[in-house]
Amino acid sequence: MLYIILGLFVLLLLIFLLMAVRVVKQGFVYTIERLGKFTLAAEPGLHLIFPFIDRVGHKINMMEQVLDIPGQEIITKDNAMVGVDAVVFFQVLDAGKAAYEVSGLQNAILALTTTNLRTVMGSMDLDETLSKRDEINARLLSVVDHATSPWGIKITRVEIKDIRPPIDISEAMARQMKAERLKRAEILEAEGDRASRILRAEGEKQSAILSAEGKREAAFRDAEARERAADAEAQATRSVSDAIAQSGNQAINYFIAQEYTKALGKFATSPNAKTILFPVEATQLIGSLGGIGELVRDITKPDAVQTNDSSGTPIPERPRVTVPRTDGRSGHRTDRS
């Protein structure tokens, strides 16, 4: 009988120890209630409690958690119906508040986020809701985090996953986007054509300026060339005049015969001429050539002088004038008058 009582005592002791020992897993905090009142937040590790007096009230997850917000139909400021999906990231900072300040923590966060999502997006136009997601996220985070701070939790992030406008509005937006892009394309094409015309006009302007400058330079050079030619012609005329003044008819006969010979040479070298008709007899040309020879000899030999004057003053010899002959022979005579 004694052994039976001893065995029961040991069994009760083991049950008591098992009820007194609590092991808290990593990432969790257990709330310990003594006679129904919260007294301790048990951190991860081994803890001893008084059985039948203390008990574990709530097992609070202290890790960051993700709460999915189901799709909501929201009416925007301009009366457009859009579907919205969101997600909330939160973390419990105070296990006692999270366990006893609110009933159903996740449901409370879900309801609070949904109502504030409708409020924030309902105050914006459709275009703003589609283009200002960052602003929506920031406003939701501020409002929800402020509202849940008494619960001992921290809202770390609020993200809009998807915004679904109605099909007809989506089609209208697609047409608007297409028209806007066509408009931009036409504007860019017009600007390109304008720039091309401007560049082409600038090029033509520069070309005209350079052409005008070239013509002006050519005109200056042509005028200078004509001026030099006129100076050369005047110099030649003066030389001829001096020669005529010094030699008389001999220089005139020389120049006439020279031009006459050049003219006959051009007739002879013409590629189209098969038969040459001279306007004068060939014997006259021969006589002229003989006269040229006499002229050259008279010019190259020393001046002959006569001493017929009784005073002994030398008298220059009279010039000899060449006269073409018609009998086929060249000859000359001296003017004795």
Features:
rod-shaped, disordered C terminus, three-stranded antiparallel sheet, 12 strands, 55% helix, alpha+beta, 337 residues
Please provide a written account of the structure.
The protein is of the alpha+beta class and 337 residues long. Helices cover 55% and strands 21% of the residues. Strands 3-2-5 form a 3-stranded antiparallel β-sheet. Strands 6-7-8 form a 3-stranded antiparallel β-sheet. The model is unreliable at 302-337 (pLDDT under 50).
Write the layout of secondary structure elements.
Elements: H1 2-20, E1 21-24, E2 28-34, E3 37-42, E4 45-48, E5 54-61, E6 65-75, E7 81-92, H2 95-100, H3 105-122, H4 126-131, H5 133-148, E8 153-164, H6 167-247, H7 249-268, H8 282-300, E9 305-306, E10 315-316, E11 320-321, E12 333-334
Antiparallel strand pairs: 1-4, 2-3, 2-5, 6-7, 7-8, 9-10, 11-12
Helix pairs in contact: 3-5, 6-7, 7-8
- Percent helix: 40-55%
What multimeric state do the chains show?
single chain
How many beta-strand elements? 12
Into which percentage range does the β-strand content fall? 15-25%
Shape: rod-shaped
What characterizes the major β-sheet?
3 strands, antiparallel
How do the strands line up in the largest sheet? 3-2-5
Task: Point out poorly predicted stretches.
Answer: 302-337
Instruction: Report the radius of gyration as a whole number of Å.
Output: 65 Å
